[in-house]
Each structure stands twice: as structure tokens, then as C-alpha cells.
């Protein structure tokens, strides 16, 4: 059944009364400048016309055959509602600036005569002699595109590329938003697995050759000789602990109708199971209902990073906080000017595992090591993700290389070693490090590892610097460290940076204050050129969240409409909507072991989704699941004045969990819902201001396949929830 389009087949001859009609000298000499004629297959009617194929034998109309090698993928015209158009994209000459001319509606060709777009905004077919910029991809306007061609446009024409996506979809598209199995079932569904774009041979080569500079060429000795760690006692370490005097944190946890009140001191933890069952009811043979803990770091959580390459009976989590800092005239604008030296610390927590890679509920987390620094608070922390063999002795264990950006604007790399079987906290004061870099007249804002030897860092003036660790160690200590690549790719402050490791380590993703997510090829001779840097659709608000999802070969970001989007690496200028939240996003993370994505909001929700099914069948409805919801309220005057009140001056927090899988609200409209319009769903939470302590500020998946279901979430009030999300 077809629906007749109401659009006119041809344009109207006259839109207004032409006062100069009949004067030949004033007539338009270029008839092609008139708006193009619309045919019966107009945009307004395509959604109502089914794809038809005429049978030559009898002249009847039959349905199109599904000859796709990747079964279940919808036609590209079906995903029109979910895939963004080429809004903001234009054909550019090499002499035209992409920064100044981006989004101009009256784009002219290089010769300055014929416009590349008509007055109606339609693209013009360029003359053969017209020199314009080409993406190198065919432009089909998402219409009448076969499924196989859709796959080739998204993942490439090489069968090995889209075959890996098909394997990942077959493995995980039937799973829910959260991982449900530790090991694959009999059909190979579910479970954890490393990236399919880094095979066994590539991973073994990374183990053998990627760390030769460190193990065989003296890199480890140079790092440890140049960095000076001094062990200090607890009294000396209190100078670096800015939250040592913070009162206990009160929070509710457990059943909704009867939650339990918990009070937790700084640097201590409580089991999640205690919030659901009274401690006196525990028995040695009872099975816990929750496998996880809640930590109190004492201040707003800034960073959470699990240490990779840990196959021992312990897992390690590096954390940093952001205490309240008074910004005055002495230190200026802290976002663009390096802050003066101030004491701070990085905490490394140790979690015990059992024989089945579950989190041991009978062993409380241990604050293993505290790294005391004078560089201010850590703004970003990243462990080197490259595969490496364990390096350990009877007393110590090497966790790997930890790179960070601190408040003083510097970039540093630390070689971290922790005690193996210790029951007390070790305090280390860092006197010097082997790798330190400061950009001229600006500061570093974010960083990402490219390999075991190279890392990239972004600056506040829109530049990206790439450093080589072995090259830096070959220089004398008094020689300033210079990057092997330093180029400007953005016009504003770069908020986030991540590499497309392990499948494409030379590609980086950035998000800046100009609103454009960028994909940049660092292997190009000119990374800032049009051929090496691709822009996605611009967001009207500043979005500082972007992550790489290796299993779907797409970048994950959140826009101003509270929607997480997937930007395919080969069609970065389009997007696929994955879901929708009810508040602005504040944290985002992906896992290298499974496809589940977590993002946190200012409302305190941590939402999980699995994009594999929607990537394979983009027309299906997206679903997501809330891991938990965190709420905070201030203390009342009566609670503050009463010393015996258990809530105290810090206020009260609450954890709510047990949410089911639900469909994404796709027609959410705040204004319509607020006015009570019939048929409007959702609520006007997009306009709601929440307490700063309510927000989820940091998220992290465990990168080890053994414990890939472990997740950590930090909140604005200093509480961190660490849980094994795989059902026991």
C-alpha cells in the first residue's frame, strides 16, 4: 500500500510578483539557479512507500530479497530517523578555511561564480573543472541504499572489517544492557572477550616486542632511577590529605521501603550486602545478595582507573578527588592558567578476588598505596593499556605506567609498584619523576595512550602533542622535553581526548569548546588538514564526554539532547542514536572486554546500554537499564544544630537500585510534558538543577577479561560504588 505525496511535482512558476518581468537585461542568465524540481519520491513520502521490485515474468510487485551477508541489518533508508544527515558538511576548496566557513549556507566554489548549493539549500552537481574537497566516500543521501552497501559505508569494503563486527554482533546482540555471563554459553553467546581487531598474533606481538624498550633495553631501570619515591609515615602524609578532617558520610542503602542508614568515615568501606541484610543475620554459608562495596574518599571524585594486566588474586583501582579550592586573584582563571604548587594525593585501592573471578565480599578493600605529590589535584589519570606480562617479586608487584595531567598544567608518567601481601597502607612522597612535560604558554587538559611507547596530550589552546617515552628517557634531565608532534586541530579548549586503541591507535577522538567532536589521523603529515581531521555534527552546548567503542568501531558521545550517539569511524559525519537520558551527562565509559556502555548524569543515574543490537538492526527500539541512582540532600538547620543527629552537617545521600530493563523514551519533550499536553511522555527534568553532590562524576570498567564485569562509579559527595555486575 502506498501513500500519495502531497508535495508538488514541479515548483511554482512565480513566488512573488516580479516588477522587472519582461526586461531581458535583468533576467537571471543561469537557469540552473532556480530551485530543483521535486519528483514523486520526495522526502516527505519516502517513509510511507515500501521498497518494491517488479517481477519481469508476470509484472507483479514483490518484496525485495534480503541478500545481505550480515543478516538483520536494516536498509539505510530505514535508519533515517536515527542516523544524522550531512548537516554542517560542505564541499570545500583547499583555500577555504573549515573553521571560518563551516556551516555557511551560501558556499561558493573556488572560482567564486557558481554556488555549490542552490538557494533552497540543495547540493549542486559540480562541473568537472570545479576543484572542491571530497570526503572520498560516495554520497547516497541515505536513500535507496542496499543493506550490503550500508555495511560497506559504515565498516569498509574489506570483508575482514565488517566480518569482525558481525562476529561481535552474533556474540552480544542478544544480551541485555549489562553483561550477563562470565563465560560464553554452548552457542558462543555472551561472556568476555578481547577486541576482535587485535587478534592473538597481534596481542602476542605486543607482549613480545611492545615492551622491549622497557624490559630489555634499559627503560625500566631508567624510569626507576630517575623517579624518587620516599616512604613516609601517616603523620607526614596528613599534609597531603586535604580531606583528613572531613566528617563521616551518612547515606541510605537497601530496600526502598526500609533502607538502612550507614555512616562511613573517610578512607573506609562498607559492603553492599550489609545494606540489604542485617549483619547479625549473616552466616558463613549464606550467599551474598550484592557483590561490591561503597568507599568514602571524602571529596568529589575526579578520576577512577582500573589497572590493566592484572591476573593475580587482586585488582587495583587508582582514584583522585577534587577538594573545594578557593580561586582568587593570586591564581587567576584555573581553567586556562596553571595553578600554583599545592599538596594532593592519589589513592590506589586493592580488591580481592576468588577462584571464579568474583569480588570477595568477606575481604574489605584495602587502601594499598597513597602517592603524595606537590602538583595539585590530578585532573586525568590513564594506565598504559598495552598487554604486558606480570612483573612481580615476593614482596612487590608492578602495576604498570600511570600517566596523568595535574593542576599545575604538567604531564607526567609514573612507574607504579605496590606491595603484594600487605595489610597496611603505604605512603609514598614523590620527589621527582622521569617524564615531565609542560606546554608553552598553556596547560595540558587531557591525555590518552597510543601504544606502550607513545602517548598524546591535549592543551587548552586547541593543540595536541605526541610524546615518545623511550626518546624522552634518552635525554638528559636538564634538557626540556619536546614532543615529536605538536599541532593545532581545534579552535578552543580541548575537553576530552581518547585514542582508537587497539584497532586504530593512530586515530584520536577529541571534543572541544567549539562543539565539534573530531576524528584526527596522527599518522598524516598534516593532522590539522581536511584530509586528516573529520568533524562530526556540532553540539549547541559544550560536551566533554567522548569514548571509543572498539567492538562497534564507533565513537560514543553525548549531545545537548541528552542522547548518547555512535559515530561510525568511516562515516564520522553521521550518527546513530543509542538511547536517551533524563539529565545532562557527566561521565562515560566503555569496556575493552564486552560491549556494555555506562554513562552517568547530573541526576545521579548510572545507565547501561548494549549498542550491538541497534548497530546490527538500527530500526529496533533501543533499551537501557539503570544500574543505580544516587541522590543527595543538604542537612537541615535542626540536623546541624543537633550534635547527636546521625546525619550530621554533611547532609544525607541515598542509593537506589533494582531497576529493570526499559524502553528508551524517544518522544521526550520537556515543554510539552511540563504543560501536560496529551500524548507527551517524560518529564521536564532537562530544566532541573540538582545538587552538585548528586552527580555521578567518574565511571570505569575493569579492563581485565578475568574481571570484566567489575564497574566503579564515583559521585560528587565522595562516595564510590564498586560492584561486580555479573549475576552470581
UniProtKB/TrEMBL annotation:
Transmembrane portions of the chain: none
SUPFAM superfamilies: WD40 repeat-like
Organism the protein comes from: Cryoendolithus antarcticus
Keywords: Nucleus, Transcription
Stretches the record annotates as Disordered: 26-49, 114-141
UniProt keyword Transcription present: yes
Primary localization class, coarse: nucleus
Keyword Nucleus carried by entry: yes
Localisation: Nucleus
Single biological process term from Gene Ontology: transcription by RNA polymerase III
Protein name as catalogued: Uncharacterized protein
Cellular component per GO, a single term: nucleus
Amino acid at each position: 500500500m502506498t501513500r500519495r505525496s502531497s508535495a508538488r511535482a514541479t515548483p511554482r512558476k512565480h513566488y512573488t510578483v516580479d516588477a522587472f518581468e519582461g526586461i531581458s537585461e535583468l533576467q537571471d542568465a543561469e537557469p540552473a539557479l532556480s530551485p530543483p524540481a521535486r519528483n514523486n519520491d520526495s522526502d516527505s513520502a519516502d517513509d510511507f512507500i515500501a521498497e518494491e521490485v517488479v517481477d519481469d515474468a508476470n509484472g507483479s510487485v514483490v518484496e525485495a530479497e534480503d541478500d545481505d551477508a550480515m543478516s538483520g541489518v536494516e536498509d539505510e533508508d530505514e535508519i533515517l530517523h536515527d542516523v544524522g544527515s550531512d548537516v554542517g558538511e560542505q564541499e570545500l576548496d583547499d583555500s577555504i578555511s573549515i573553521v571560518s566557513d563551516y556551516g555557511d549556507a551560501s558556499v561558493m566554489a573556488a572560482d567564486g561564480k557558481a554556488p555549490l548549493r542552490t538557494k533552497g539549500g540543495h547540493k549542486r552537481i559540480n562541473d568537472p573543472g570545479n576543484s572542491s574537497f571530497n570526503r572520498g566516500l560516495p554520497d547516497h543521501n541515505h536513500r535507496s541504499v542496499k543493506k550490503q552497501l550500508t555495511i560497506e559505508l559504515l565498516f569498509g569494503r574489506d570483508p575482514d572489517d565488517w566480518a569482525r563486527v558481525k562476529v561481535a554482533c552474533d556474540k552480544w546482540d542478544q544480551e541485555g544492557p549489562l553483561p550477563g555471563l562470565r563465560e560464553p554459553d554452548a552457542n558462543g553467546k555472551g561472556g568476555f572477550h578481547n577486541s576482535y581487531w587485535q587478534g592473538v598474533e597481534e596481542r602476542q606481538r605486543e607482549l613480545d616486542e611492545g615492551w622491549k624498550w622497557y624490559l630489555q633495553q634499559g627503560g625500566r631501570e631508567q624510569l626507576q632511577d630517575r623517579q624518587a619515591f620516599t616512604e613516609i609515615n601517616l603523620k607526614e602524609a596528613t599534609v597531603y590529605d586535604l580531606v583528613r578532617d572531613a566528617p563521616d558520610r551518612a547515606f541510605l542503602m537497601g530496600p526502598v521501603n526500609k533502607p538502612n542508614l550507614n555512616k562511613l568515615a573517610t578512607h573506609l568501606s562498607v559492603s553492599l550486602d550489609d545494606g540489604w541484610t542485617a549483619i547479625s543475620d549473616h552466616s558463613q554459608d549464606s550467599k551474598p545478595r550484592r557483590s561490591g562495596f561503597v568507599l568514602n574518599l571524602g571529596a568529589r571524585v575526579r578520576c577512577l582507573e582500573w589497572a590493566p594486566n592484572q591476573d593475580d588474586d587482586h585488582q587495583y583501582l587508582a582514584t583522585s578527588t577534587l577538594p573545594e579550592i578557593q580561586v582568587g586573584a593570586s591564581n587567576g582563571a584555573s581553567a586556562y592558567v596553571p595553578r600554583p604548587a599545592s599538596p594532593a594525593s592519589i589513592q590506589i585501592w586493592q580488591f580481592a578476588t576468588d577462584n571464579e573471578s568474583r569480588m570477595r565480599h568477606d575481604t574489605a578493600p584495602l587502601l594499598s598505596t597513597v602517592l603524595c605529590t606537590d602538583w595539585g589535584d590530578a585532573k586525568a589519570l590513564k594506565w598504559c593499556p598495552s598487554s604486558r606480562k606480570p612483573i612481580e617479586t615476593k614482596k612487590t608487584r608492578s602495576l604498570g605506567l600511570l600517566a596523568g595531567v595535574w593542576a599545575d598544567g604538567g604531564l607526567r608518567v609514573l612507574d607504579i609498584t605496590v606491595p603484594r601481601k600487605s595489610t597496611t597502607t603505604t605512603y609514598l612522597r614523590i620527589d621527582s619523576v622521569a617524564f615531565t612535560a609542560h606546554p608553552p604558554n598553556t596547560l595540558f587538559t587531557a591525555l590518552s595512550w597510543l601504544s606502550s611507547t607513545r602517548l598524546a596530550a591535549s592543551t587548552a589552546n586547541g593543540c595536541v602533542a605526541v610524546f615518545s617515552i623511550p626518546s624522552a628517557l634518552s635525554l638528559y634531565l636538564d634538557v626540556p622535553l619536546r614532543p615529536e608532534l605538536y599541532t593545532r586541530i581545534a579552535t578552543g579548549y580541548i575537553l576530552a581526548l581518547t585514542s582508537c586503541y587497539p584497532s586504530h591507535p593512530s586515530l584520536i577522538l577529541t571534543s572541544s569548546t567549539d562543539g565539534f567532536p573530531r576524528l584526527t589521523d596522527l599518522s598524516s603529515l598534516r593532522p590539522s588538514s581536511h584530509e586528516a581531521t573529520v568533524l562530526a555534527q556540532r553540539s549547541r552546548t559544550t560536551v566533554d564526554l567522548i569514548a571509543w567503542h572498539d567492538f562497534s568501531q564507533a565513537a560514543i558521545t553525548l549531545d545537548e539532547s541528552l542522547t548518547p550517539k555512535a559515530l561510525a569511524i568511516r562515516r564520522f559525519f553521521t550518527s546513530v542514536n543509542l538511547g536517551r537520558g533524563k539529565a545532562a551527562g557527566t561521565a562515560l565509559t566503555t569496556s575493552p572486554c564486552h560491549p556494555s556502555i555506562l554513562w552517568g548524569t547530573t541526576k545521579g543515574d548510572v545507565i547501561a546500554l548494549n549498542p550491538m543490537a541497534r548497530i546490527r538492526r538500527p530500526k529496533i527500539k533501543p533499551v537501557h537499564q539503570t544500574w543505580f541512582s544516587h541522590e543527595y540532600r543538604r542537612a537541615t538547620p535542626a540536623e546541624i544544630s543537633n550534635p547527636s543527629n546521625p546525619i550530621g552537617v554533611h547532609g544525607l545521600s541515598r542509593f537506589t537500585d533494582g531497576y529493570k530493563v526499559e524502553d528508551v523514551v524517544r518522544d521526550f519533550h520537556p515543554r510539552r510534558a511540563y504543560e501536560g499536553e496529551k500524548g507527551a511522555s517524560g518529564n521536564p527534568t532537562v530544566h532541573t538543577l540538582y545538587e552538585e553532590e548528586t552527580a555521578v562524576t567518574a565511571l570505569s570498567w575493569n579492563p581485565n577479561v578475568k574481571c570484566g564485569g567489575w564497574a566503579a562509579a564515583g559521585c560528587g559527595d565522595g562516595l564510590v560504588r564498586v560492584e561486580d555486575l555479573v549475576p552470581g
